[in-house]
Structures are given as structure tokens and as C-alpha cells.
Automatic annotation (TrEMBL):
Annotated localization: Cell inner membrane
Annotated signal peptide: none
Superkingdom of the source species: Bacteria
GO BP terms: C4-dicarboxylate transport
Presence of keyword Kinase: no
Name of the protein described by the UniProt record: ABC transporter
InterPro entries: DctQ, TRAP_DctQ
Primary site of residence: membrane
Organism field: Neobacillus bataviensis LMG 21833
Bilayer topology: Multi-pass membrane protein
GO molecular function, one term: transmembrane transporter activity
Protein family per UniProt: Belongs to the TRAP transporter small permease family.
Residues annotated as domain Tripartite ATP-independent periplasmic transporters DctQ component: 23-151
Keywords recorded for this protein, A-Z: Cell inner membrane, Cell membrane, Membrane, Transmembrane, Transmembrane helix, Transport
Length: 186
């Protein structure tokens, strides 16, 4: 399973690098052509905009997978492990519901815009809205996987959403030492 996740991760990073590289090439070339030759590539701005949207959606998937989105966890850090689990499950369920709505909205917008095409490239706007479905679908799978790990595998490594949180490690160690001490007393 980890091999598949790492391959998908590498593929997403490659697609993001390609999108960013093509954007830079198209925009730079168009600027040079406008200022030096007084002409430009008509479709370059439009394709760059499409690539930027795709890059943002794919980057959001990667950031979500690695818990790199902004969050405030000062209250959660002070809770015991049981409280952290409850907050984690509730917040992920809220995210899950929100992502289902996002998927549904993206689906409807994709269907509405299949006949609408961009003026310079003729590319359907459905390609933009389809990435909303891809992003929300991928994030739904990530949430379900994380909730499965928490509930069935008892993995508490991601209870605090910020990366590199040393407080979580300390609180898990304190909880484990309390359990060991209680077991030794009996």
C-alpha cells in the first residue's frame, strides 16, 4: 500500500513540476514576444491559467496528505489523547461532508460546462471543473484512510494536524507511561 501511495505522490509532484515549468515557459515566451516582436501567442495566457488551476488543486491534495494546510491546534494540544481522538474524528467528518458537497458541485459544474469552450484554445471548461472532482475525491480517500488507521489500527500519530508537533509525541508517551505505571501497581 505504501508503495502505491509513494508512486501516486511522485506522479502528482511530477505533474505539478510540469505544470509550473510550462506556465513559466509560456508566460516568459509571451512577454518576450510582446516586447521584442510586438506580437504574442494568443493561447499562452489561457493555457497558463488552466495549468495554474490544475497546479493548485494537485498541490492541495499533496498538502492535505502531509497535513501541511494551515490550522490552529493550540486547544487540541492541551487535550488528553481521548479528547484529541474525538476532535480529530469530528473535524475529519466535517471535512468529509464539505468535500462531498465540493465533489457534487464540481460534478454539476463539469456537466454544465461541457459545451462551453475557452475562446483562444477551444478547450472545454469542463477540464477546469473536473479537477475539483479529482481534488475532492482524492481528499475524501485520504480522510477515509486516516480515519481507518485511527479507528482500526490505533495509529495516533496524526491526531494533531500540524506537522512536526513534538507535543503530541510527549502526550502519547505520558499516556503510555501512565498505563504502564497503572499496570505495574496492579
Amino acid at each position: 500500500m505504501k508503495g502505491l501511495v509513494s508512486k501516486i505522490d511522485a506522479l502528482l509532484k511530477l505533474v505539478i513540476v510540469v505544470c509550473l515549468s510550462l506556465m513559466a515557459i509560456f508566460v516568459f515566451t509571451n512577454v518576450v514576444l510582446r516586447y521584442v516582436f510586438n506580437s504574442g501567442i494568443t493561447w499562452s495566457e489561457e493555457v497558463s491559467r488552466f495549468l495554474f488551476v490544475w497546479l493548485i488543486f494537485l498541490g492541495a491534495i499533496l498538502a492535505f496528505k502531509d497535513n501541511e494546510h494551515l490550522g490552529v491546534d493550540s486547544l487540541v494540544k492541551k487535550l488528553p489523547i481521548a479528547g484529541k481522538k474525538v476532535i480529530y474524528i469530528v473535524s475529519n467528518l466535517i471535512l468529509l461532508i464539505t468535500l462531498v458537497f465540493l465533489f457534487d458541485g464540481s460534478w454539476k459544474l463539469t456537466l454544465l460546462n461541457t459545451d462551453l469552450s475557452a475562446p483562444a484554445t477551444g478547450m472545454s471548461y469542463a477540464y477546469i471543473y473536473a479537477f475539483g472532482m479529482i481534488m475532492s475525491g482524492a481528499m475524501i480517500l485520504i480522510i477515509l484512510f486516516k480515519l481507518f488507521r485511527l479507528i482500526f489500527k490505533k495509529d495516533v500519530s496524526e491526531l494533531i494536524m500540524s506537522t512536526g508537533s513534538e507535543e503530541l509525541v510527549d502526550s502519547v508517551e505520558r499516556e503510555n507511561s501512565k498505563k504502564e505505571t497503572g499496570a505495574k501497581k496492579k
